[in-house]
Amino acid sequence: MKLLGISGTITGIKPFIVVQKILDEVKQNHPEIEVELLNLRDYDIQFCDGRDPSTYTGDTKKVIDIVSSADFYIIGTPIFQGSITGALKNLFDLIHPKDLRNKVMGFIATGGTYQHYLVIENQLNPIAGYFRAYVAPGFVYLQNDHFNRQNEIIDEDVLQRLTALGEEVVFMQKALKAPKSDYQPTV
Predict the structure, then answer these.
(1) What is the rounded CA–CA span in Å between residue 171 and residue 68?
(2) What are the backbone dihedrals phi and psi of residue 86, each rounded to the nearest 5 degrees, phi first?
(3) Which intervals hold domain NADPH-dependent FMN reductase-like (predicted)?
(4) Which of 14, 33, 47, 133 is deepest in the core (most CB within 10 A)?
């Protein structure tokens, strides 16, 4: 199983730090899971123009392949002007819906005010719904006060919620991929 972390911005560092933190914990607690971090700032990605995703080349093709080949995701974005980044929206536009169907997604977002936490519920969850992906319920929103001047996460409650989010996506992914004979529903 491959967990892909996505830092969905080409500016700023906080989403990268938060996604990396979750990936590090998952790798430590679940060594059987392969983890990879996709930092959008490291790629020169074309704007989606509506063509078939298989026709893109270069970095755009690499990123599409990386995202499409993952089994589940931790996706992070800063909130700018009350919305996700254009870079992350462009990434979602480039991916064929079938490549995200029935995959687990966990969301984190960072922002300058406490009010922007609703962007996860109002924008990211509907996008995941469009893809027919499964969303971990424990998303995490981090505000500037949760970091120190070195951009280290200093809020203990936030750290615990990040750990819980990592465990949720792993639990959901394993449950969804378990052989049918291992599933014993309780009535």
Answers:
(1) 21
(2) -65, -35
(3) 1-145
(4) 14
| 77 located within any domain | yes
DSSP 8-state assignment for residue 36: E
Q: For residue 73, is it within any domain?
A: yes
Q: Residue 13 domain-assigned?
A: yes
* Residue 187: inside a domain: no
Q: Could you tell me the residue range of the domain that residue 109 belongs to?
A: 2-182
Stated as kind and residue range, the H or E segment containing 177 is: helix 156-177
Question: Are 36 and 5 in contact, with CB atoms under 8 Å apart?
Answer: yes
Q: How many domains does the chain have?
A: 1
148-186 pLDDT, tens digit each: 999 999 999 999 999 999 999 999 999 998 876 665 555
- When computed from its CA atoms, the radius of gyration of the chain, rounded to whole angstroms, is 16
Threshold 0.90, pTM exceeds: yes
